[in-house]
Design goal:
The protein is of the alpha/beta class and 529 residues long. The protein has 15 helices and 19 strands. Strand 1, helix 1 and strand 2 form a beta-alpha-beta unit.
């Protein structure tokens, strides 16, 4: 190993690629300097383009790039940004040389998120790879691990926090509860409504039907064009009724007048229409949960779906009436899995079933595992993660609920038609975190405990501005799992979180959900507990 090829997968949206390119270039320059100091040369496998960036920005381009690389050559997929894994997946699946995925430890752009998605996709595809991350590429952890990869073509991470779930302490009553829920799912079946699969190249977020069917879970494949059509059938008066409900609950909108750069009332009214349409479609097709892809296609037709998603996942939400004039599933969430992540959707259904049976909070959401840092205010001695989903959480998760939440325009470089986010700061409390993923053509669940913690306002502001300030944020502490253990093990860009009323009740709900997952044939791994 003397020359190493550098690959950079990017976004499908050129506006994002151009905006984020300086951070990517800075990271690549640092990496090349470090490798040069170790006696290795680097070469980009694809040039900087006339458009002003050096990212692979389509699947075909990625295939063409890999066709020109020696299949035995060492490759580093370096990511400082969000990337579409399918741009490079075909080339990595057929590549025979050593592969290292690498990200800069920065909250500025979702490079860590992009790398974790690629890692989850490679795990699902059965591709052997190593992974690594660093803030400045000069710390001992990074340098030692990089040297290990250069010499042995692999990196050994500490995964001692992971163990197979043992349920010996589970009571007979809880075992029976888990079995009853599983039997009901198998007997009466569950439908996941999928508005177009494969959001943003997330191969890892698609569960093969044959893994779901034995559990009694099936997909209703819906089209986003149907959602667009039904959105436009909703009357102005119905949209206004939802909008007025949101304002009455205290949701603060940051309105402007310029559609291209500011949040407008017209954008929010279209989001209210989409919310009504989504509820009605979910009911029409009998979907226990739905997932809207949104990011591609629908973004060119409608404002963002984020405010919609936050409403759907909340128990306290505006009523939507069906054809007979009665409210659809009143005082219950319409479970929604953001970015049509089916692994999160399956997890959310299990959470909803268990928490309903135990009297625990029903609101659940996924977050990006965006970044993390020590608390620079010194108020918390634990490592604190930034969990941050791209636009909306159920407001029950936020301090102050609806009244503690705000709506900002989605960033223009991602969302040309705007739309309001549902931003808030997550309330402190006991959480259960989890991730369902596919490995070796089987379903697995990692599950653990943690807390959402309060940080001083200035520290929260630092973290929010250091990531994407329009988006909701949770300050997350994970029980018994270090930063590097989490990064080495996690099989996805997303992490699922749900609150419980107390630590004891969180432990109880975690155990019952683990039993339910095992009863359904999912391999369960306790992380840090």
């Amino acid at each position: 190993m003397s020359k190493i090829w550098i690959i950079a997968s990017g976004d499908l949206r050129e506006s994002a690629n151009v905006m984020c390119w300086p951070a990517q270039k800075a990271m690549e320059d640092k990496l090349s300097a470090v490798l040069g100091g170790m006696g290795y040369s680097t070469q980009r496998a694809h040039p900087v383009k006339s458009e002003g960036h050096g990212f692979i920005s389509s699947q075909r381009e990625g295939m063409d790039v890999f066709a020109e690389i020696d299949a035995e050559a060492p490759i580093i997929v370096a990511e400082a940004v969000w990337q579409y894994s399918h741009h490079v997946l075909a080339g990595l699946v057929s590549h025979r040389g050593p592969i290292l995925t690498l990200a800069n430890w920065s909250g500025q752009w979702p490079g860590l998120v992009g790398m974790l998605n690629l890692n989850g996709s490679l795990v699902k595809a059965g591709v052997k790879f190593s992974t690594l991350w660093s803030e400045n590429f000069d710390d001992a952890f990074f340098l030692n691990a990089l040297q290990e990869w250069l010499k042995t073509e692999t990196i050994s991470h500490d995964l001692s926090h992971v163990r197979s779930a043992e349920l010996n302490a589970l009571s007979d009553r809880d075992r029976e509860l888990a079995k009853d829920i599983a039997d009901d799912i198998r007997q009466n079946k569950v439908i996941l409504g999928v508005f177009d699969e494969g959001c943003m190249g997330m191969y890892n977020a698609i569960i093969p039907d044959e893994l779901l069917m034995p559990m009694g879970i099936y997909k209703e494949r819906l089209s986003q064009s149907a959602l667009y059509y039904e959105t436009n059938q909703v009357s102005e008066s119905e949209a206004i009724r939802v909008f007025e409900w949101l304002k009455a609950r205290g949701l603060k909108f940051h309105f402007g007048t310029n559609h291209a750069t500011e949040l407008t009332e017209a954008q929010v009214l279209d989001q209210c229409r989409m919310y009504i349409a989504a509820v009605r479609i979910a009911e029409e097709f009998g979907c226990e949960a739905i997932g809207i892809q949104y990011q591609q296609g629908l973004k060119d037709l409608l404002p963002a779906s984020d405010l919609v998603e936050g409403m759907l996942n909340n128990t306290d939400r505006p009523d939507v009436t069906g054809g007979d004039g009665t409210p659809i599933r009143p005082d219950k969430p319409i479970v929604h899995f953001n970015e049509v992540d089916e692994c999160a959707g399956l997890d959310a259904v299990l959470i909803n079933r268990v928490h309903h049976a135990l009297g625990q909070p029903l609101e659940t959401t996924l977050h990006d595992l965006r970044w993390g840092d020590v608390d620079q205010s010194g108020s918390c001695t634990d490592f604190v993660w930034v969990f941050e989903i791209s636009g909306a959480v159920p407001p029950a998760h936020n301090k102050g609920g609806w009244a503690g939440s705000e709506s900002y325009r989605q960033p223009a470089m991602f969302f040309p038609n705007g739309g309001g986010t549902l931003k808030g700061i997550a309330k402190s409390g006991e959480i259960i975190w989890s991730r369902i993923f596919v490995e070796n053509n089987a379903l697995h669940m990692d599950i653990g405990r943690g807390q959402a913690v309060d940080l001083p306002e200035e520290e929260t502001e630092r973290r929010s501005k250091g990531t994407t300030s329009e988006w909701p944020i949770m300050h997350g502490v994970l029980t018994g799992v270090t930063r590097d253990q989490m990064m080495a093990r996690h099989r996805a860009n997303h992490i699922q979180v749900v609150y419980a009323h107390s630590a004891e009740e969180a432990d109880h709900a975690l155990s019952v959900r683990a039993a339910l997952a095992k009863e359904l044939g999912i391999s369960v791994h306790y992380c840090g507990i």
